Amino acid sequence: MEKKRFSFLASIFPNRCVYCGARTAGDALVCDECAANLPRIEGPVCPKCGRGKKECDCRGKENYYDGIAAPFYFEGAVRKGIHTFKFRNYTAGAREFAREIYKTAGERFEGVKFDFITEVPITEKSRRARGYNQCRLIAEEFSDISGIPYEQGILKKIYETQAQHGLSAFLRRGNLAGVFDVTDPVKVKGKTVLLCDDISTSGETLNECSKMLWLYGAKQIYCVSVALTKAKKKPETR
Ligand SMILES: [Zn+2]
Ligand SMILES: [Zn+2]
What is the average pLDDT across 189-213? Predict the structure, then answer.
């Protein structure tokens, strides 16, 4: 269903840059300007939070996940591209984002054997309102590119939460307690899981999802995201 929507929309907008929206040559998904100037996260990278050392303020905080890899900071054309992808139904971005995530994860998680990739869930209500879960589209494309199996809906979001931005770190954590659950424990036990998000701010959503996977016996949990906010920047709503 969601795949169909993707192809359908991609065929309506074949020649737009998925980041800035400018026309591109042929069927390219990225314009030359963006290709040269995207806000990439470049090394040395903090192994805990996935940001460049200068942008890290995680102070080596321990998480339920084993690592996070993201190609970009959430700013400039990447910010625009993710917004268009999320809120304006321009889902052609999923393929391009997945390709970027694949490159970055390949470097950071070299040698890790993943059993499957799944997505950070949104509530059923949000999914109906938007028509798709944007993280799921990326996870599916990632699976297609990498050959790592995709498992749909391993996690579910039980109820809607207050937007994470504007809350202190302490309240953010409390805001998410008990919000996520594992739908199929048998699929999780003893497995190495790759969890896909679109934007990660404090990492609390990924951490809470990872906690549930860990509680159900996942062996290792790694996270990928299209973009990370720089430290202390205003986070995004989901
Ligand atoms: Zn562009
Ligand atoms: Zn860090």
Answer: 94
